[in-house]
TrEMBL record:
A Pfam family reported for this protein in Swiss-Prot or TrEMBL: FAD_binding_3
Signal peptide: none
InterPro entries: FAD-bd (IPR002938), FAD-dep_Monooxygenase_BioMet (IPR050493), FAD/NAD-bd_sf (IPR036188), HpxO (IPR047712)
Catalytic activity: urate + NADH + O2 + H(+) = 5-hydroxyisourate + NAD(+) + H2O
Protein known as: FAD-dependent urate hydroxylase
The FAD-binding domain, residue ranges: 2-338
Enzyme class name: oxidoreductase
Pathway the protein takes part in: Purine metabolism; urate degradation
The organism of origin for this protein: Acerihabitans arboris
Entry cofactors: FAD
EC number: 1.14.13.113
Length: 384
């Protein structure tokens, strides 16, 4: 049996590895001429880590993951700690560690494991045909690829999604802009093994440790869409938006490299329930584009890859039947993740100022139990 995967991102590469491990001939086709990560880093929570372990990457993910032993929220103006607690109770409850990871290293790890010789670049999908027994993908360079099934892991602007749904979908602007990048760890900004977040004014500044003694940092600011800003203006923009914030935030702004800082307007897509059509299945952002507010976008794509491969292996009534069962297994889960992230987004970024102020106040009385319970619920909803 042969699978064609459209998209060489985290979801596509994970699906390629999972199907290959189960004996499928698998090829990945990617639109760009050079695979580059979108964003500086990503938080791989234990449900995602367990998926990577399932793919045979337990040693590799530990090697590139950061040591995140605790979590803290701090006041934006004074820098005072509102709450701080260890993450070990979460680890003990869910059975695995979280690993914040540089995206470039994660992407390289996945593609190396899959085998770069079976990843075909500069292959922009322009046509898709499913004749009931095989699927053929046509690319802009005139070439084609045929397989027993096709997986659309081609991201939030998915071409495959249009085939599956029969129409385009609109992205929804979530109301804020995110700046992110990597910087050398400086304990004058935050402890080296802690996820630290400064909150106030509907904004946040967050740092997570990744391997190589680096922080993954991100700044969130509620803003209108379409502002004319770029890397050239990053430091000036951040200084303006975070005027009056505490010394560690100012130090981070001074130390970051503006030309290596990404600026992203955050969107999601309204959840939908059709993830498959015939021998074609959607996976990752193509199936459930979410905001990053609960850190589950990449993890959900890895979950998709595991569930899809298990469904194909466990059921013998044909590819289309197995894909329908994959859809049944995933729709409720991915819908809940999109909506949870949206709800958290709105509270964090001041959509309802009263709710946001109440959240800030609750942090002063937070022991960690409430936050960790919510995280555990999300993590334990995964397939492993």
């Amino acid at each position: 049996m042969k699978a064609i995967v459209i998209g060489a991102g985290m979801g596509g590469a994970s699906a390629g590895i999972a199907l290959r491990n189960f004996g499928w001939q698998t090829e990945i086709y990617e639109a760009v001429a050079q695979v580059k990560p979108v964003g500086a880093a990503i938080s791989i929570w234990p449900n995602g880590v367990k998926c990577l372990n399932f793919l045979g990457l337990q040693r590799q993910i530990k090697a590139i993951g950061g040591d995140m032993a605790s979590m803290a929220y701090q006041d934006y103006q004074s820098g005072q700690i509102l709450t701080r607690f260890p993450l070990r109770p979460l680890v003990d409850r869910v059975g695995e560690f979280p690993y914040p990871t540089a995206r470039a290293e994660l992407q390289s790890m996945l593609l190396d494991e899959f085998g770069r010789g079976r990843v075909f670049l500069n292959k922009r999908l322009i046509q898709l045909e499913d004749n009931g027994s095989q699927v053929t993908a046509g690319f802009a360079d005139g070439s084609t690829a045929t397989g027993d099934l096709l997986i659309g892991a081609d991201g939030t602007h998915s071409m495959v999604r249009r085939h599956v749904l029969g129409h385009d979908v609109k992205r929804r602007y979530a109301g804020y802009v995110n700046w992110n990048g990597l910087v050398e760890i400086d304990e004058a900004i935050a402890p080296a093994n802690q996820w630290t977040t400064f909150v106030g004014q509907g904004k946040r500044v967050s740092l997570m440790p990744v391997a190589g003694r680096r922080f993954y940092y991100f700044f969130d600011v509620p803003l209108p869409t379409g502002l004319k800003q770029s890397r050239d203006t990053s430091r000036k923009d951040l200084k303006r938006y975070f005027t009056g914030w505490c010394a560690p935030v100012q130090r981070l702004i001074e130390q970051l490299d503006p030309m290596a800082t990404n600026r992203v307007e955050i969107h999601d897509i309204e959840p939908f329930s059709t993830l498959v059509r015939g021998r074609v299945a959607l996976l990752g952002d193509a199936a459930h584009s979410t905001t990053p507010d609960i850190g589950q976008g990449g993890c959900a794509a890895m979950e998709d890859a595991v569930v899809l491969s298990l469904s194909l292996r466990a059921h013998s009534l044909g590819v289309e039947d197995a894909l329908r069962r994959y859809q049944e297994s995933r729709v409720e889960r991915v819908t809940s993740l999109v909506l949870k992230a949206r709800k958290r987004c709105d509270v964090t970024h001041g959509k309802d100022p009263l709710a946001t102020r109440q959240w800030y106040h609750s942090l002063e009385h937070e022991t960690g139990e409430h936050i960790l319970n919510g995280m555990a619920e999300t993590i334990l909803g995964g397939p492993l």
